[in-house]
Write a structure and sequence with these properties.
67% helix, mainly alpha, 9 helices, single chain, binds zinc ion
């Protein structure tokens, strides 16, 4: 297993290369390069949130409960159309930290489904969906999604690479080989949750390519819930 520093370097490399590539092919304007690179860097360290003592896990719970609600409110304007409702939504989302932390403590194991190919695709989809809310900026969403997803894949690939010891001419393989890029894990519930989430997100991404944004879907759901 590669350490935090190696993963950070891998994420920075992936993020910067993809951001520059996207700018070169004019998918994004130059000021967007840092954002696209950041998605790759976060992807490069994100899988280790499944480890209790890891730095990414501490970052997620110490800063995520402020950053994630802010991103969601920014991404779905309907949630902040009324300042009072906006504050309530933000507080409720921030308090989600506690049930999520409990779920993580109970259900995540290091090298579980957070270290899997569908998890990398989920992260790429999330970056795509969070990237921008205006359909004319689809190319930005593609750039963010690619950077986040590939950054995540780089982490998994580094973990796999570290499972092989190249000692002289002998190649020794550790038990953990093949656990990072797997498609399914040993726990059926985790597989269902992972593949179910991926299917849902791929559906949203597909709709995004067809001009249907997350907030349009949110508005539809809201009008159905309010009875019209
Ligand atoms: Zn890892």
């Amino acid at each position: 297993m590669a350490d935090y520093k190696t993963h950070l370097q891998g994420g920075i490399t992936a993020g910067v290369v993809i951001a520059l590539g996207c700018a070169w092919f004019e998918l994004i304007p130059l000021p967007r390069i840092p954002f696209v690179a950041l998605a790759g860097i976060v992807g490069g360290i994100a899988p280790d949130i499944d480890s209790n003592a890891s730095r990414p896990r501490r970052i997620l719970f110490n800063y995520g409960n402020v950053i994630i609600p802010s991103i969601i409110l920014w991404r779905i304007p309907a949630l902040r159309s009324d300042p009072q409702i906006g504050v309530i939504c933000w507080v409720v989302l921030a308090l989600m930290r506690y049930p999520v932390e409990w779920l993580f403590a109970k259900h995540t194991v290091h090298r579980g489904m957070f270290h899997s190919t569908p998890a990398a695709l989920i992260f790429g989809c999330l970056c795509f969906l969070l990237a921008d809310w205006r359909t004319e900026r689809l190319s930005h969403q593609v750039a963010l999604g690619l950077s986040g997803g590939i950054g995540y894949f780089v982490h998994l690939s580094l973990d796999e690479l570290w499972s092989v010891d190249f000692e002289g001419r002998k190649i020794r393989v550790k038990k953990s080989l093949g656990t990072a890029l797997k498609l399914i894990g040993p726990v059926p519930l985790h597989n269902v949750a992972t593949w179910g989430t991926l299917t849902l997100l791929l559906g949203l991404v597909w709709r995004g390519f067809n001009g249907v944004t997350v907030e349009m879907i949110f508005e539809q759901l809201r009008s159905v819930a309010l009875g019209g």
